[in-house]
From TrEMBL:
It is found in: Cell inner membrane. The lineage of its organism: Bacteria, Pseudomonadati, Pseudomonadota, Gammaproteobacteria, Oceanospirillales. It is a peripheral membrane protein. This is Polar amino acid transport system ATP-binding protein. Keywords: Amino-acid transport, ATP-binding, Cell membrane, Membrane, Nucleotide-binding, Transport. InterPro entries: AAA+_ATPase, ABC_ATPase_HisP-typ, ABC_transporter-like_ATP-bd, ABC_transporter-like_CS, Ectoine_EhuA, MetN_ABC_transporter-like, P-loop_NTPase. It comes from Marinomonas pollencensis.
Length: 257
């Protein structure tokens, strides 16, 4: 069997006295689409932020594409890998955030071209050509010169997706990308991800509350609670519940409440 593209092994993570992961192990295979669903505060975002190297870990190890993500064991202590290694690993990962995190003082196009030029050393012309193609892909070809504040939430998030894709990541991390949107704007963002899932082959790890969507596009839906994957696969009856009751039904089913 091929090596997983993401592997957490016995990972520990604490914030002060609060333990988020005690002994967390989890694998994602190359080109797999995995959704993570779970209660608020259970550590789902932390999982993605650790992968994106926005948070460190307190124990265990994480491999991405066969290489240690950013901690190396040296004389029984965890030390950060070099900045060079960190950059190399980060290039494989793209993340889309719940609150978009676009640079407000840059045009849409510049939001997308900045990292490929600075981090990957792409020429302006190549970066702009790629940005234009990505804006076309997310249905915003006419917004290249607009500023984020002139866009709707759904449009901002589609720019966020284009920005993540501009780095040509092997792995795309999506952190509740529709949670900050008005309900009528959710579908335009999910449609972009649906198309990506259908047409491109890369690995996606999503944290989402959109359970139908998760089931539709994922190879695996995982339920995450108290720092552990407690079950994989979502039972059918969860999806027959009315939309607003679905999350609760799901949680109740797994927490035995
Ligand atoms: N930088 C931080 N410093 C201290 N505590 C943190 C930090 N980041 C997260 N936490 C805490 O860790 C726990 C897990 O947070 P996380 O955001 O990963 O949960 P989540 O499952 O994504 O929740 P939600 O669905 O509400 O976004 C929470 O109790 C949160 O308050």
């Amino acid at each position: 069997m091929s090596q997983p593209i993401i592997e957490f092994k016995n990972v520990q993570k604490r914030f002060g006295d609060t333990t988020i992961f005690d002994d967390f192990s989890f694998k994602v295979e190359e080109n797999e689409i995995v959704s993570i669903i779970g209660p608020s505060g259970s550590g789902k975002s932390t999982l993605l932020r650790i992968l994106m190297t926005l948070e460190g870990i307190d124990g265990g190890y994480i491999n991405v594409a066969g290489e240690s993500l950013w901690h190396m064991l040296w004389n029984d202590r965890y030390v950060p890998a070099s900045n060079k290694h960190l950059h190399k690993m980060r290039e494989q990962l793209g993340m889309v955030f719940q609150h978009f995190n676009l640079f407000p003082h840059m045009t849409v196009k510049r939001n997308i071209t900045e990292a490929p030029m600075r981090v990957k050393g792409l020429s302006r012309q190549d970066a702009e050509e790629s940005a234009e193609a990505l804006l076309e892909l997310v249905g915003l070809a006419d917004k290249a010169e607009s500023y984020p504040n002139d866009l709707s939430g759904g449009q901002k998030q589609r720019v966020g997706i284009a920005r993540a894709l501009a780095m040509r990541p092997a792995i795309l991390l999506l952190d509740e990308i529709t949670s900050a949107l008005d309900p009528e704007l959710v579908d335009e963002v999910l449609d972009v991800i649906r198309n990506l899932a259908k047409e491109q082959s890369f690995t996606m790890l999503l944290v989402t509350h959109e359970m139908y969507f998760a089931r539709e596009i994922s190879d695996r839906v995982c339920f995450f609670d108290k720092g552990k994957i407690v079950e994989e696969g979502v039972p059918e009856d969860i999806f027959s519940a009315p939309r607003e009751e679905r999350t609760q039904a799901f949680l109740n089913a797994y927490l035995g409440q």
